[in-house]
Amino acid sequence: MSSAGFSGQEFHGIPVAYVERPVNKGTAKSYGGTVRLDAKFGLSKLDLNSYLAYTFIDGEIDGGHIPFSAKNTIKGGVDFSLNRLSLSPRFIYRSESYHRSLRDENDNIVTNDPFTLVNLNVRYLISNSDILKSAVYIKIINLLNSKYYNLPIGGRECFPNAPQDPIRVNFGLSFKFL
Predict the structure, then answer these.
(1) Which end of the chain has fewer CB atoms within 10 angstroms, the N or the C?
(2) Per-residue pLDDT at 9 exceeds 90
(3) Residue 1 located in a structural domain
(4) d(CA 26, CA 152)
(5) Number of separate domains in the chain
(6) pLDDT tens digits for 93-147?
(7) HEC states along 82-139?
(8) Which of 79, 77, 57 has its CA nearest to residue 68?
């Protein structure tokens, strides 16, 4: 996949000077797979439900790297449940990814650095009746406030790496009518 530029285009009826569009062309080879391990344990009133997954993807498109695809990805998490409380830490690790066309000052394809992201969900079940199930929750994304970057989708004028969200905390109530 590459990109091509087109002049004299329109966007929603508004004339624009230049438009860049992805174009499918060339020959691609890809291979890979995922291995996942799930484990569930019960210890008295405590329930543990965990998983760990590893994904490997490799290949080439016209002799180059597969763009926007990390060769190695590891995901894992554990759900702890005790009575009405549940705690769910999760993580994801991604190795570097390659841009499809952007090059640095040494004419190398732009990449992003590998990163690890940790998230946490906490939930307390308020009501669990025959007609209503309600809970209060806290969801923390990027718990460690890691500074990490993904590759931009653009191909010409853009940042070489796009900063991602800092720590984000969501509070809420959920209601499920049965």
Answers:
(1) C
(2) no
(3) no
(4) 22
(5) 1
(6) 999 998 877 888 898 888 899 999 999 999 999 998 889 999 999 999 999 999 9
(7) ECCEEEEEEEEEECCCEEEEEECCCCCEEECCCEEEEEEEEEEEEEECCCEEEEEEEE
(8) 57
Residue 166 lies in a domain: yes
Which pTM value belongs to this model? Answer: 0.79
pLDDT of amino acid 25: 75
Q: How far apart are CA 151 and CA 157, in angstroms?
A: 13
Q: How far apart are CA 123 and CA 171, in angstroms?
A: 10
The answer to whether 93 and 114 are in contact (CB under 8 A) is: yes
Q: What is the mean pLDDT of the chain?
A: 88
List, in order, residues 6 or more apart from 3 with CB less than 8 Å away: 20, 21, 22, 23, 100, 101, 155, 156
Q: Which tokens is 110 given? A: 């732009």
Angle at Cα 53 formed by Cα 59 and Cα 95, nearest 5°?
A: 50
Write out the H or E segment, with its range, that includes residue 168.
strand 168-177
Query: Is residue 100 in a domain?
Result: yes
27 pLDDT exceeds 60?
yes
Tens of pLDDT, residues 35-49: 999 999 998 899 999
Residues 6+ apart with CB under 8 A from 64: 98, 109
